[in-house]
Amino acid sequence: MFPRIQLKINDRIIIDSEDFVSKVEGSVLNFSLKDSDTFPATVDSELVAIGGWKLNAVSLIHSRASSEMVIKGWKSLGQLIPMDRLLIPFLYSTGIDYVRFNISGVEPKWARLLRLCYWYEKCLGLDGEDFRYKQTEIKRAILKPLRNVEKTIDNEGKGFLSATEQLSRTISSYTSELAISALTNGCSSKVSFDKKHDFIFDTFPCEVKSLYSHMTIEREKDETPKLNIHGQTLGEKVNSHGEFFKFIFSKKALAHISKAYSQGGKFVFLDVTHTFASILMYLLSTESEIDLSFSKALNNAVNLAKNTKEKLPVVVVSSVSSYAHQTIAFVVPIPLQLIQSLEKIRKPKGK
Predict the structure, then answer these.
(1) Is the pTM of the predicted complex or chain greater than 0.70?
(2) Domain residue spans in the chain?
(3) Is 65:114 a contact under the CB 8 Å cutoff?
């Protein structure tokens, strides 16, 4: 049985698992926060305090991130979205994970809000007024799953975890879109926004797609750990190069690429941060000493687009957490003939 959980802010009970998850017996785990704990505060140039944690913006978000920029972003985004309401589901779901597994994650779940705020603020600094279209889109996209989460809270928590996961994926997807826009602009490429595409750089319309996959690490007693992906065990040694391309040319990845192309994307950015392909990319960069810098990948994609009309530049992107958070990327040329054949399958004649 899970212990009873309470979330309190200024001694006011926000959520209580006695009515929330079912009738739960046992001790009470209290989250007792002040109003000030629900708003990020600067500890120093890198550290941000929120929710009772101190988080390092450099290792959490980007090597050049600062606590000041994160807080600016929180205030700016707060003009569109009620950030205090957005924080509560992640506070509570982090507590639920703690009592289920008796451990805390490397970072609390609300850390993803700080990433969103930082990259939102970076995109506010880009030239042009067309970002207002993106602002409206972000507001609508996040408020809908947030309301769904709040409905589950009012309904004794039925479906809370799945609704919170959907909210989390929405936030992660827009964080990826904003981060890639800002990073592209940082590579001396003029970035702008419009109603039709995720963003435009130079004259190229771009679409960003985020993928998710399930993976586990299996280990019997005294055995070398084995990577299990979607129920398939890859064994003690993983062919990083082969498995990476197998993933990119899988039905799931190609479906996302095909959709991006049908939306008019001349460049496709495929974010694989939340898939096992992210691990494979990191292994490629360390084992083979391949330069996976974002700037090089973008340059390679531009050269590919200029020199051939038969292949679509797909920039595979992954965020890597380390002492200094970084984004690695790799260009995969996808034959347009392959994408167009998938389009015919997706849209059969007469339908």
Answers:
(1) yes
(2) 4-190, 204-346
(3) no
